[in-house]
Amino acid sequence: MGKTSKEDLASIVGQRLKELRKAKTDLGQKDVADEIGITKQALSSYESGRHLPDQTILIDLAKYYGCTADYLYGLTEKMNPSSTDYSKRDSVNRLLHSLDMVAEDEGDFLADSIANTINSLSLNNGNPQRRNLIECMGQLFYSFAEYIEMSTSYGKYLSEKVSTNGLTADDIAVKLAHISGFDDIYSIIDDIRRAGISSVLTFSVNAKKALRIRAGQRTGSKKSLKMTEFEEQFKEMLDKED
User: Which residues cross the membrane (predicted)?
Assistant: First the structure.
């Protein structure tokens, strides 16, 4: 096994610092630097791999991000050596109890879906919109549960009306109108899509310039090629990212 050079170590530390800041805090370099007590320029040099932080600063950064120094050095993939005992968490126990209330194959499918979602949102993946995506997924689950409960209760209500010969066309129209007008899920999905696009647009200045040219906008020119509606929206989002 070859010896790790100081330059390689600085690159590893820099990459992990950058991933942690973007994925865990959603803060700018100045915000983190102020908390640690260093300059923005110093933090920028650490994240870019130009300089390796001394041990004292590296420990302060590890404490701030809730990880170990070994994780920052790339010696382990575990942020914290002491794994959380989730068996004692009420939320996990509620989840396990809920899985017992469905068929085994359904429980396996739901558990796998949740596990895959959590793994994709891991801090190690470094998605800059990770926190936004987590909030969107939580809102989506709650809204989906509300939609299921609503449709179930409406179905039972109409069935009871039928059993008493009291069902009217107005009853059906009102309930269907409520179900059809439930657009919370669509709104959340749109937020997820926007967060995904924002993640993709975390590019360098040169990459953004290339994308603008591909979309038909010529740099330095007041005239642009005719764009589709999507390209117009894409151009607007690029501008907001600057």
Answer: none
Beta strands in 108-235 (DSSP E): none
CATH number at residue 59: 1.10.260.40
65: left (phi over 0), alpha (psi -120 to 50) or beta: alpha
Answer whether 230's CB lies under 8 Å from 216's CB. no
56 inside domain? yes
What is the value of pTM for the model shown?
0.56
10 Å CB burial of residue 67 (0-12, 13-18, 19+) is buried
172 with 158, same domain: the answer is: yes
For the stretch 189-228, pLDDT in tens is: 999 988 888 777 765 555 555 555 555 544 444 444 445 5
Number of domains within the chain: 4
3 state SS of 224: strand
Whether 181 and 133 map to the same domain: the answer is yes
Token code pair at residue 44:
């920028």
Do 112 and 98 form a contact (C-beta atoms < 8 A)?
A: no
Give φ, ψ of 52 to 5 degrees. Answer: -100, 125
Residue with tokens 């590296």: 58
Q: Is residue 212, in this structure, part of any structural domain at all?
A: yes
